[in-house]
Amino acid sequence: MNTSYTTFESPLGQMTIQANDLGLLGVWFETQTTQPKELGKKEPNHPILVLTIKQLRDYFSQRSKTFDLPLAAKGTVFQQQVWQALMTIPFGETWTYQQLAEAIGNPKAVRAVGLANGKNPISVIVPCHRVIGKKGKLTGYAGGLERKAELLKLEHWEPD
């Protein structure tokens, strides 16, 4: 299946967005190393890419707290399970890695959950930035801890 991509200048830096006809495959900040080497054809008018940019603009301008996009990220069954659980973390709230492990029914898989969280290819939309360390500390974000802090600030989260 053909993949398409475009770029978007967000308030937190340039983002690359990739999709196919089934859905969104990835959203990465320019510094993220998890981007695929091959992005496909640059097609800024692809309907899913256009819709993604519109919803990202609404999010960053605080006109919307949710995303409604078809997702087609590739990952293992376990990664998919973790990414689905991430989608249930409410806007403006954070969970610990332990809470995320419990949400997927595997409370002993904290480290594996952390690794799957770090492999999330759909930044911001699949809100891996809402996962923090158990003592309320900002930890691990492929887009950089500064961006994670800015995303949480945008969502009006305040550390304890």
TrEMBL record:
<keyword id="KW-0227">DNA damage</keyword>
<protein>
    <recommendedName>
        <fullName>Methylated-DNA--protein-cysteine methyltransferase</fullName>
        <ecNumber>2.1.1.63</ecNumber>
    </recommendedName>
</protein>
<keyword id="KW-0963">Cytoplasm</keyword>
<dbReference type="InterPro" id="IPR036388">
    <property type="entry name" value="WH-like_DNA-bd_sf"/>
</dbReference>
<dbReference type="GO" id="GO:0032259">
    <property type="term" value="P:methylation"/>
</dbReference>
<feature type="active site" description="Nucleophile; methyl group acceptor">
    <location>
        <position position="128"/>
    </location>
</feature>
<keyword id="KW-0489">Methyltransferase</keyword>
<dbReference type="InterPro" id="IPR036217">
    <property type="entry name" value="MethylDNA_cys_MeTrfase_DNAb"/>
</dbReference>
<dbReference type="InterPro" id="IPR023546">
    <property type="entry name" value="MGMT"/>
</dbReference>
<dbReference type="InterPro" id="IPR036631">
    <property type="entry name" value="MGMT_N_sf"/>
</dbReference>
<comment type="function">
    <text>Involved in the cellular defense against the biological effects of O6-methylguanine (O6-MeG) and O4-methylthymine (O4-MeT) in DNA. Repairs the methylated nucleobase in DNA by stoichiometrically transferring the methyl group to a cysteine residue in the enzyme. This is a suicide reaction: the enzyme is irreversibly inactivated.</text>
</comment>
<dbReference type="InterPro" id="IPR008332">
    <property type="entry name" value="MethylG_MeTrfase_N"/>
</dbReference>
<feature type="domain" description="Methylguanine DNA methyltransferase ribonuclease-like">
    <location>
        <begin position="5"/>
        <end position="72"/>
    </location>
</feature>
<dbReference type="InterPro" id="IPR014048">
    <property type="entry name" value="MethylDNA_cys_MeTrfase_DNA-bd"/>
</dbReference>
<keyword id="KW-0808">Transferase</keyword>
<comment type="similarity">
    <text>Belongs to the MGMT family.</text>
</comment>
<feature type="domain" description="Methylated-DNA-[protein]-cysteine S-methyltransferase DNA binding">
    <location>
        <begin position="78"/>
        <end position="156"/>
    </location>
</feature>
<keyword id="KW-0234">DNA repair</keyword>
<dbReference type="InterPro" id="IPR001497">
    <property type="entry name" value="MethylDNA_cys_MeTrfase_AS"/>
</dbReference>
<dbReference type="Pfam" id="PF01035">
    <property type="entry name" value="DNA_binding_1"/>
</dbReference>
<dbReference type="Pfam" id="PF02870">
    <property type="entry name" value="Methyltransf_1N"/>
</dbReference>
<dbReference type="GO" id="GO:0008168">
    <property type="term" value="F:methyltransferase activity"/>
</dbReference>
